[in-house]
Write a structure and sequence with these properties.
Layout (H helix, E strand, L loop, with lengths): L1 E2 L1 H15 L2 H9 L3 E5 L5 E3 L3 H9 L7 E6 L5 H10 L26 E2 L1 H11 L11 H10 L4 H6 L1 H12 L14
Parallel strand pairs: 1-5, 2-4
Antiparallel strand pairs: 2-3
Length: 184
């Protein structure tokens, strides 16, 4: 439901640099297939790489590589969303970290909400504050961890300060059970 718009902009810059050369763009996209599940009406529901997908859309790149990881197209929409949630393939939270019913998921990528804490988690991971893991929604967990410890107004007003504070928190004992935790 929500993405970090700084992360989308950074991905967009990468895409647009490569878009000047079709071969480079194609290679870049081949290395980053977008995982999706086939749902009702044979629509594809993206389950990861939302930042890249939105960056592609904003860059007017109208093709990407997709890996279909499941087919639930036989289910009606409500059952489909329930099944996706049951499989852990949905993370239906709004831009404030509040749980939302899966039926409220945006129909289109450009309807996704902005969550500055997703940007904070993305920035901290990029700076080595925690390691990338294979655990689903690890960055969401970090975003929520920071959300309860750094005021939203601080993140919006002074992102650099919030980033420094989040780096310190990521290495604190409080974070020891978080996915990708790196001890001091």
């Amino acid at each position: 439901m929500a993405v970090g718009m700084r992360a989308v902009d950074a991905k967009r810059e990468k895409v647009e640099r490569r878009a000047r050369n079709n071969r480079k763009l194609r290679r870049f996209l081949e290395d980053r297939p977008i995982p999706a599940v086939r749902g009702p009406n044979d629509d594809l529901f993206i389950i990861d790489h939302h930042h890249l997908s939105l960056a592609l859309l904003k860059s007017d790149v109208d093709e990407a590589f997709v890996t279909v990881v499941g087919d639930l197209s036989h289910l009606p929409r409500k059952r489909f969303l329930q099944k996706m949630a049951g499989l852990g393939l949905l993370h239906a939270y709004d831009g404030h970290g509040r749980a939302m019913p899966p039926t409220k998921l945006p129909e289109r990528l450009d309807d996704m909400l902005s969550d500055p804490y997703r940007d904070l988690a993305w920035s901290v991971r990029g700076a080595g504050g925690f390691a990338k893991t294979g655990k689903p929604y690890a960055e969401f967990r970090w975003a929520d961890f920071f959300r309860t410890r750094i005021p939203r107004s601080t993140v919006r007003r002074d992102f650099d300060y919030a980033h420094d504070r989040a780096m310190w928190l990521a290495r604190s004992r409080e974070a020891a059970r978080m996915p990708g935790y790196i001890s001091r």
